[in-house]
Structure formats: structure tokens, C-alpha cells
Amino acid sequence: MALVDIKQLHCPKCDATNHIHIYKHINAQEDIKLRDKILSGRLFDFYCPYCEYRARLYYPCLYNDVRNKFMVYFVPGIEKGQMVDRAVEMEFEDMPKITKRIVPTFNEFREKIIIFESELDDMAVELTKAAVAGAVQKKTKMIASSGYFSVYNKEDNIMGFTFFLDNNQVYTQTTKLDVYRKSWSIVSRLGKKERSMKGFIKIDKAWADNILFRYQRFGFDTM
Q1: How far is CA 106 from CA 73, 193, 222, in A?
Q2: C or N: which end of the chain has fewer Cβ atoms within 10 Å?
Q3: How many CB atoms within 10 Å of residue 96?
Q4: Tell me, what's the pLDDT at 223?
């Protein structure tokens, strides 16, 4: 079951007192409706019935999918690349190896869940995204400031990403799954350090850009 707190919050617009649910821990198999709310973005919606003010209210939330063997910890704005939560480690110490990630934004939170539910390696996906972003920037002559996993079709042999360019244009680019497989081959060697680390690890654009730089400049000699 979900671990939830009920807290009072004064509406930023009318100052009325509201009672809101703070979901600290969500189990994917037991809390299916909450999972759907994460993917739709509604989990963090705030609505004041007194003045009809609406906003997004982000807070730390741990998502645990036992069946697919992954956890994603959403900690808004976190900068560190690794976080060890001793309470979580003790609670799940008897479980077989489980992938644990930490993310600072809601979009990354949602993206990680979709990646792992698709039974993909997020390190390889991030590296593929970095390579595709480079191709998009060359094609459009614009900076792809951020991008998210958005297309996956195993039968059609494609994977795709939606990027936000520097003129606020949204651009989706697909690539063959061969690029993902090549990325997996690279991170299986250059990502050994991160795979052996304890706790929740941040695997993001900065990490992928570093791996891509090392591979393009040194090959596998930096292991």
C-alpha cells in the first residue's frame, strides 16, 4: 500500500486551508491508480475548491515496482549523483538485485518509469538520447536543451525521443534500435562503476554526455 501523509496547505491565492495527500511511497502493483496518476501528471495536482486555483505541487516520492525490479526516487531539485536511503536499503535488503534511480524533475520521474516498464536499460536509453540529440542539433541548427523517451516499437525496430529546442519548438526524432543496442554495448563496459554503486544513482543527460565523450575520444580504454 501507498505510504501517505495528509497535511494542511494554505492556498497561495486565497489563503484558504486545504488538506492534501502527500504520497511518500507508491507500490506499482498495489497502487495501480496512483501509477496512472503519475504517468498522467495528476498525482501532483493541487486544486483549491474555494477559489478554483490550480497548480503543481511537487514533493519527494519513492516509486517501487517489485515485479519489474526497479525503484525511482523523485526528489525535486536534487543535485547529488548518488543518494543512500538507509531505511529503504534495510527494508528491501533481502530482495534480489534491484535497479535504483534518483531524479530531480517530474518529467524524468515519469520517463524512468516508462523506460523500465518497457524492459529497457536506462543507461543505454540515455546514451541513445545523447547521440540522437546531437543529430537533431546538426539537422535543425538549434540547441536541444532537454529531451525525453517518447517512442518505442519493437516490431518496427524504432525508438524515439521528443526534444525541446531553443525556440520552444517541440521536435520528435526516431532512430533504429540498432543504435540502442550499440549504446547498450558501450554502457555495459563504461557504466560498470555506476552499476556497482549502492543506493539511488542519477543517470541523466550529464552522465550520458560524459560517457559519449569518453567513448568518442578514448573508446573503451577508460574503463
Answers
A1: 10, 26, 33
A2: N
A3: 6
A4: 45
φ/ψ (deg, to 5) at 171: -135, 125
Q: Is the pLDDT of residue 167 over 90?
A: no
Q: What's the residue count for the chain?
A: 223
Nearest-angstrom CA–CA distance, 138 and 168: 17
C-beta of residue 93 within 8 angstroms of C-beta of residue 120: no
pLDDT tens digits, one per residue of 98-155? 999 999 999 999 999 999 999 999 999 999 999 999 999 999 999 998 999 999 999 9
Question: Cell numbers at residue 69, please?
Answer: 525490479
Rounded Cα distance, 7 and 53, in Å: 18
Is the CB of residue 16 less than 8 Å from the CB of residue 47?
A: no
Q: Three-state SS string across the chain, please? A: CCEEEEEEEECCCCCCEEEEEEEEEEECCCCHHHHHHHHHCHHHEEECCCCCCEEECCCCEEEEECCCCEEEEECCCCCCCEECCHHHHHHCCCCCCCEEEEECCHHHHHHHHHHHHCCCCHHHHHHHHHHHHHHHHHHHCCCEEEEEEEEEECCCCEEEEEEEECCCCEEEEEEEHHHHHHHHHHHHHHCHHHHHCCCEECCCHHHHHHHHHHHHHHCCCCC
Residue-wise pLDDT tens digits, 8-47: 999 999 999 999 999 999 999 998 999 999 999 999 999 9
d(CA 83, CA 100): 10
All three cell numbers of 140, joined, read: 535543425
